[in-house]
Amino acid sequence: MNKRKRALWGFIIGDAYGVPMEFMERDTFKVDDMIGYGCWDVPAGTWSDDSAMTLITIEHLIHDTSIADLKQAFCDWAFRGYWTYNDEPSFDVGLTISEVLNRWEKNGPFEQAKTDEKSNGNGALMRILPIALYSYKRSIEERYVKDYATLTHGHIRSTLCCMHYTYVVHHLMDGMTFAQSLENANKQLLPLLNEYPNEKPNFERIFSINELTRDDINSNGYVIHTLEAVYWSMLNSSSYYDTIFNAVHLGSDTDTVAAIAGGLAGIYYDELNVPEDWMELIPKRDEIDKLLDRFVKVIF
Ligand SMILES: [Mg+2]
């Protein structure tokens, strides 16, 4: 498996592993297997909104469809079971995404995402990995990432988090260590933060992530907290499995944190060291694998 494909499978496996423990409090559980049920009534291996919106974005990039078509595909996912694990409408749609999808469904794709500060959940960050991989070596990242991030999350903070993650993805693709990737991403974000000085204090935690202990880390659905949980998990792990294990055991938004961290760990480590039977539990495994193969061919 090459780095790009490993990143995307790493993302999906992280999502599926974390789904049953979503919303659970830190240190109230220990799970070292792909289990089912838990907080959502779904079988083991079920992936959620994070993977679905990621796969739909991949399909959009492969076929070079319009943004209106991409928005339509997101609506088809939420309301009609397009790219869900069981072909039923999605069991899990975040609040901000649900709000904008409802307006697209009702009024059409010209409706814009909300731009208020409260609309800073992790719903753009959780579907940005294909954009980060596609923009690698294409010198289009700033504009491109912003265009995709703001489809569902119009506030600049969400876009800045997507940018930072994209920079980290690119440095890992270049073969840097995670610590180096983080340091370089911090440097690259600074000029952007200078354009939005009010946002600077929000990124202090990301910039000082090396100094934060597990107890300091938040891991909920607020985009800054998700990003800090992702980076902390990467910094404090030594394999792919270790990374998603640590991510899930932070509690709260377990599936999204493990998915986003799993995407980075999939690039960074040479193998996804999870048992083969985990892969066998993933619904639509072959369909996903074929899609990822096509995507990898398109983005090279
Ligand atoms: Mg999810």
TrEMBL record:
One Pfam family hit: ADP_ribosyl_GH
Residue spans crossing the bilayer: none
InterPro entries listed in its UniProt record: ADP-ribosylglycohydrolase, Ribosyl_crysJ1, Ribosyl_crysJ1_sf
Keyword GTP-binding: no
Keyword terms of this UniProt record: Hydrolase
Keyword Hydrolase: yes
Top-level taxonomic group: Bacteria
Record's signal peptide: none
Family per record: Belongs to the ADP-ribosylglycohydrolase family.
Protein name: ADP-ribosylglycohydrolase family protein
Record organism: Solibacillus palustris
